[in-house]
């Protein structure tokens, strides 16, 4: 199963349009959104083309193909605009014997993990910094941010394709980081 991951849109219509273009081009079955979709938050500057209502409208066009979790900037008011659920703090996707644990990263994070088994994949956003690594038998993946990247990285998203998780630049699809999670 091919999956696309995006995090920390923060109400940027330009970033949303770029994500949806990449999603359409990717052939991914599901668009997995790991939080902070509509609001920019009090610690972030307004992102380029800030338009939360238009972002909601565009994301609703692919609602049947979205799996999402709530970020620290998402609220029940945001849920009123979206046609897919965003209020769960975490979700899980099972890939055979392997589990993808999805969360934004403000509640569960690499320093405060939920109960996981060796080989499981912990997927989060929140930091706006891309990660694809294995530590202590677990895989850690963060697609970075599509609208407000940090740490000197470009705006980025993630893909799971044929057992490889990769972080890719939104602009030119270059691979920033990747890791094989299954044989």
Automatic annotation (TrEMBL):
- One of this protein's Pfam families, by short name? Metallophos_2
Listed cofactors: a divalent metal cation
Query: Do the record's keywords include tRNA-binding?
Result: no
Q: Which UniProt keywords apply?
A: Hydrolase, Metal-binding
- Record-annotated Calcineurin-like phosphoesterase domain positions: 1-161
- Gene3D superfamilies hit by this protein: 3.60.21.10
Q: If you read the UniProt record, what top EC class would you report for this enzyme, in one word?
A: hydrolase
- Enzyme Commission (EC) number: 3.1.4.-
Write out the GO MF terms: hydrolase activity
Family per record:
Belongs to the metallophosphoesterase superfamily. YfcE family.
What name goes with this protein? Phosphoesterase
Q: What is the lineage of its organism?
A: Bacteria, Pseudomonadati, Pseudomonadota, Gammaproteobacteria, Enterobacterales
């Amino acid at each position: 199963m091919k999956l696309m991951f995006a995090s920390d849109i923060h109400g940027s219509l330009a970033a949303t349009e770029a994500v949806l273009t990449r999603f359409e081009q990717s052939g991914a079955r599901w668009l997995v959104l790991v939080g902070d979709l509509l609001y920019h938050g009090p610690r972030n500057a307004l992102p380029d083309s800030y338009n939360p209502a238009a972002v909601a409208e565009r994301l609703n066009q692919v609602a049947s193909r979205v799996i999402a979790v709530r970020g620290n900037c998402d609220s029940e008011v945001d849920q009123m605009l979206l046609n897919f659920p965003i209020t769960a703090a975490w979700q899980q996707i099972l890939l055979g014997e392997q589990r993808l644990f999805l969360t934004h990263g403000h509640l569960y994070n690499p320093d405060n993990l939920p109960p996981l088994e060796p080989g499981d994949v912990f997927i989060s956003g929140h930091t706006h910094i891309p990660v694809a690594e294995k530590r202590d038998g677990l895989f850690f993946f963060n697609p970075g941010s599509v609208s407000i990247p940090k740490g000197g990285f470009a705006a980025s998203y993630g893909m799971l394709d044929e057992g490889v998780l990769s972080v890719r630049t939104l602009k030119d699809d270059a691979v920033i980081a990747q890791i094989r999670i299954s044989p």
